[in-house]
Amino acid sequence: MFDILMYLFENYIHSEMEVVVDHDELTDELTRAGFHRQEIHKALVWLERLTELQECQTKPYLNRSPNSATRVYTAEETARLDVDSRGFLMYLENLGVLDFSTREMVVDRVMELDTQQFSLDDLKWVVLMVLFNVPGHEAAYDQMEGLLFEQAEGLLH
To answer: Is the model's pTM score more than 0.85?
Structure first.
C-alpha cells in the first residue's frame, strides 16, 4: 500500500501532473502499473481519510491547539514509530514544520498504513504527503521538501 501512495505522490502530486479524480480510472491505471486492486483500494481509502482529517470531524482532538504539551505515544505507536522517528517528529515541531494538528495527522496516517516495516525515510514521505494536503501549510511543505531532498555538502564529521 505504501508503494502505491509513493507512486501517486511522485507521479501526480509531486510532479504537478493532473490528478485523475475518477477512482475507477485511477484503479485501472495503477493496475496497469503492476499494483494489486486490494492494495490500490487500501491506498485510496488512506488518502480519503487524510482528506477527512482536514475537516477535523473524524478526530475531535485535532480541534485543540495546546501551547505546549508533551506527546506521549501509545505502545502501538512506539512499535511503529521507533526512537529516531519520534525524535524526528519532535525535531520538525521545534523547527515549526509541524504543529500540534499536523503532527497528529502524521501519527494517525502512519498508524493506518498497512505495512510490516516502517522506516524514518517512510515517515518523511508521510509528513510530506500530509503537509501537501493541508491548506495553509505551503511554507512547511517547502521546508520539509528541502529537508527531504537536500544533499549534504562537504565532509561529514
So the answer is: no
